[in-house]
């Protein structure tokens, strides 16, 4: 057994650790039958082009319903990417849980102010970013020294008792003072709409994460704030010049209207869907030529019809399509055009 990734000291004896806190994970929509979108359970939309998306995350207890019994082998291969074994020791797991349950109290604070100690909210978002990075599976990977800095801060200040966190030293810690973030929230969005977890694989200034009805922009240096505005599905609009949250300033959020939030998320889904099917382009063209179609490319409309069929099959079946179903969809759609 390896040592704990947080304290590096004790054995990582803990199994079933959540990389994303359960209170947020369960809000990433996954209930069957609530709406059409929700049937897209556990899909990895961007699987072919980007590993940064792990789809509609699914509650562990729902996994059985969807996939049936998972074999030990499948679990060992990390079929459940949000839950990990032997990352943390029991103590560190409990310490992380402390700030999670404290931060979870802000869910009901739907205004701009989160009304939580800035030390807690900063530690909370640091813990999210750090855990995403150490998993190495969500696309977003911090630079080594950044990851180590966050680990050091978490290891130094997290405590088994929330009231024992050394706020005084934390506020004075120069390394902590350099860190800042902006947070968008669309309160109650996840009650009626599908939400996602998406970590941008390339953005570093700031690191950018969509998580449920939150969007996090995390800055390691003061100089990075407003230095560069990177496009992030529209969430970057209006960001420049807005207040930042630090260890000294209580958390303020940028509140989004549902309509605006939705249109940004649609940009994300469209991009990922396009990326996913781009990889099949060559296959469509090859099939088209083999079947004696005109020209070297399958008509765009036909490609779109095949893709639409696959998406709708997925929704009906509630699981990812296989290569075989891709071939069948291709055959069925091409048949319609056959003379
Ligand atoms: Zn530990």
What is the topological layout?
Blueprint: E1 17-18, H1 22-25, H2 60-67, H3 72-76, E2 83-84, H4 90-104, H5 118-135, H6 144-157, H7 167-172, H8 174-177, E3 180-185, H9 189-192, E4 197-199, E5 207-211, E6 214-219, E7 254-255, H10 258-278, H11 281-290, H12 300-317, H13 323-337
Parallel strand pairs: 3-7
Antiparallel strand pairs: 1-2, 3-6, 4-5, 5-6
Helix pairs in contact: 4-5, 5-6, 12-13
The chain binds zinc ion.
The site of zinc ion (ZN) has 8 residues, from helix 4.
How is this structure best described in words?
By secondary structure, this protein is of the alpha+beta class. It has 2 domains: 17-256, no CATH class; 280-337, no CATH class. The chain is built from 13 helices and 7 strands. The chain has helices at residues 22-25, 60-67, 72-76, 90-104, 118-135, 144-157, 167-172, 174-177, 189-192, 258-278, 281-290, 300-317, 323-337, and strands at 17-18, 83-84, 180-185, 197-199, 207-211, 214-219, 254-255. The strands form 2 sheets. It has a 5-stranded mixed sheet, covered by helices on one side. A two-stranded antiparallel sheet has the order 1-2. Strand 5 and strand 6 form a beta hairpin. The longest helix has 21 residues, at 258-278. The radius of gyration is 22 Å and the shape is elongated. The N and C termini lie far apart (63 Å). Bound molecules: zinc ion (ZN). Zinc ion (ZN) binds at residues 4, 6-7, 10, 88-89, 91-92.
């Amino acid at each position: 057994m390896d040592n704990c990734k947080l304290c590096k000291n004790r054995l990582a004896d803990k199994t079933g650790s959540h990389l994303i806190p359960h209170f947020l994970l369960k809000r990433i929509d996954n209930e069957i039958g609530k709406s059409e979108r929700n049937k897209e359970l556990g899909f990895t939309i961007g699987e072919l082009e980007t590993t940064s998306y792990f789809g509609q995350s699914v509650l562990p207890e729902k996994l059985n319903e969807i996939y049936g019994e998972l074999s030990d082998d499948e679990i060992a291969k990390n079929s459940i990417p949000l839950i990990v074994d032997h990352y943390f020791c029991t103590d560190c797991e409990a310490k992380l849980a402390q700030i999670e349950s404290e931060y979870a109290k802000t869910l009901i604070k739907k205004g701009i102010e989160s009304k939580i100690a800035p030390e807690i909210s900063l530690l909370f978002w640091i813990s999210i970013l750090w855990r995403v990075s150490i998993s190495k599976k969500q696309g977003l990977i911090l630079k080594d020294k950044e990851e180590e800095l966050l680990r050091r801060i978490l290891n130094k200040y997290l405590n088994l008792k929330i009231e024992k966190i050394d706020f005084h030293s934390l506020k004075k810690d120069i390394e902590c003072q350099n860190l800042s973030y902006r947070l968008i929230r669309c309160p109650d969005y996840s009650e009626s709409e599908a939400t996602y977890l998406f970590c941008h694989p390339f953005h570093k200034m700031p690191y950018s994460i969509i998580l449920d009805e939150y969007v996090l922009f995390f800055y390691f240096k003061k100089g990075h704030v407003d230095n560069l505005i990177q496009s992030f599905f529209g969430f970057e609009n209006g960001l420049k010049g807005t207040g930042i949250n630090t260890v000294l300033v209580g958390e303020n959020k940028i509140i989004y209207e549902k309509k605006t939030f939705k249109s940004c998320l649609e940009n994300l889904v469209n991009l990922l869907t396009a990326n996913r099917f781009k990889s099949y382009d060559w296959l469509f063209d090859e099939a088209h030529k083999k079947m004696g179609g005109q020209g070297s490319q399958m008509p765009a409309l036909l490609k779109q019809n095949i893709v639409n069929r696959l998406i709708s099959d997925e929704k009906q079946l509630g699981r990812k399509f296989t290569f075989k179903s891709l071939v069948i969809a291709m055959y069925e759609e091409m048949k319609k055009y056959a003379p």
